[in-house]
Amino acid sequence: MLELLFLLLPVAMGYGWFMGRNSVKQRDHSAKQDLSIKYSTGINYLLSNQQDKAIEYLLETLTVEDDTVEAHFAMANLFRKRGELDRALKVHEHLVRQKHLPTKAKQQAAFELGKDFLTAGLYDRAESMFHTLMKSKVFAQRSLTYLLQIYQSTKDWQHGIELKKAIVKSKDKKLLHTLANFYCELATIALEKDQFIEVLELLESALRCDPNSCRANWLMAEIYENHQQYNEACQCYKDIYTQDNEFFPDVIDKMANCYHQLDADDEFYCFIKKVYDETGGSSALIKYLSLIEHKHGHVKAQEFMLSALKRRPTIQGFKHFIKMQMNQPEQDHENLAMIKELVSAYLNIKQRYNCRNCGFNSSTHYWSCPSCHDWETLKPVRGLEGE
Ligand SMILES: [Zn+2]
User: Fold this and answer.
1) Which residues of 306-328 are buried (b: 16+ CB within 10 A; e: fewer)?
2) 261 CB contacts (<8 Å, ≥6 apart)?
3) Cα dihedral sign for 311, 312, 314, 320?
4) Which residues does the record give as Fe cation binding sites (predicted)?
5) Residues around ligand 1, an ion, CB closer than 5 A
6) How many angstroms does the Cα of residue 373 sit away from the middle of ligand 1?
7) Which ranges of 244-365 does DSSP label H, i.e. alpha helix?
């Protein structure tokens, strides 16, 4: 009930002001009477606990003036915060209908109404509200963000891409990153239909929006690999490492295969050594160990593994160490196999991916976090139980 006083406060002030003026003429007298009736009727509704009637009555009878518009916004926001969306909608719709308000207040009313519709899941109405604000200096960028949010929820990638001109003009990195992922979504659909040229064009558009899009390079590498263009695929995998090395563990095997196809295993192992030196990741370590074993024998590889595990212990590294032990003829294979199985079972119940934005954990990889909906934030877990 208290929030309705936001509306009544300016009325009360006006009433007091009228009462304080003894020298008013006849025309002021009738206005004073009118205002006092509205004020007391509103109070009566409130006192009888009929909030909805009070809101409707006050919105219908009291005019929104420049000095009371902020009170209306504050009250509507309070309603929205308390989850009373229908009440917030009523106030914002009322404000949108006020033709005499200054442009900024009118735009703010449309923007807030768009947010109400979005919260209520009325995407069509929210979309048209945000579209009306595309030329607003104050609200255009925020409206773009909400429009992309709507198109992401409805998987309407094409409509999102139609906003490209405005997004590029905004130069907002987060919006450009989201747009690049919209292109990647379309590229994934085209990839399933084997539309090679279309996929490449969509991915190039994605990289023009966001040159650091790991996802675009990932898909690009997949296309090249499928078409046996291994040099190009290797370059894409290298780009992924440069762009965001936290994604790299998931492409190591694919990259190893491409170098192998090119008969360039040595080149791959030089690259992996650099990756291990720079990141210390367990996937890079395991790949690098194959090189040591191949060049310097099993004993050297085992020594390297032990010192690496002492420096930076990981369960994944420990599992690989057991596997190395199992390859030795003199070892107790039965017990080692049991330990390896237990470690594998332990790793299987652990979530492999973690969202760097909201902390959401998942065993499956998603390009858009199912919890916070940010793009490319789900990456392999780091630390003892991860990389
Ligand atoms: Zn998240």
Assistant:
1) eebbeeeebbbbbbbbbebbeee
2) 228, 230
3) negative
4) 355, 358, 369, 372
5) 355, 357-358, 360, 369, 371-372
6) 6
7) 252-261, 265-279, 282-296, 298-311, 315-326, 333-349
Q: How far apart are CA 65 and CA 98, in angstroms?
A: 9
Nearest to 175 by CA among 138, 205, 141: 141
CB atoms near residue 230 (< 10 Å): 20
- Between these two residues, 254 and 314, which has the higher pLDDT value? 254
How far CA 45 is from CA of 59, 80, 92, 126, in Å, comes to 13, 21, 21, 32
Is 270 annotated to bind ligand? no
Q: Cα dist. 94→1, 98, 203, 264, 381 in Å?
A: 19, 7, 45, 70, 49
Q: What are phi and psi of 355, to 5 degrees?
A: -80, 125
Residue 210, number of CB atoms within 10 A of its CB: 24
Query: Comparing 373 with 49, which gets the higher pLDDT?
Result: 373
Q: 280: CA distance to ligand 1 center in Å?
A: 25
369 labelled ligand-binding: yes
Strands (E), the chain: 353-355, 361-362, 378-380
Cα(239)–Cα(173) distance, integer angstroms: 19
pLDDT per residue as tens digits for the range 202-234: 999 999 999 999 999 999 999 999 899 999 999
Amino acid at 206: A
Q: What distance in angstroms lies between residue 376's CA and the mean position of ligand 1's atoms?
A: 9
pLDDT one-digit tens code per residue, 67-76: 677 878 888 8
Q: Which range, of 24-28, 120-124, 375-379, 382-386, averages the lowest pLDDT? A: 24-28
Cβ(155)–Cβ(125) below 8 Å:
no
Burial class (CB in 10 A: 0-12, 13-18, 19+), 135: exposed
Among residues 103, 75, 104, which one has the least CA distance to residue 89? 75
Check: CB of residue 146 under 8 Å from CB of residue 126: yes
Dist. CA 51–CA 301, nearest whole Å: 76
Chain segment 176-195, per-residue pLDDT in tens: 999 999 999 999 999 999 88
- Is 306 within 8 Å of 312 (Cβ atoms)? no
What does the DSSP 8-state code read for residue 63? Answer: P
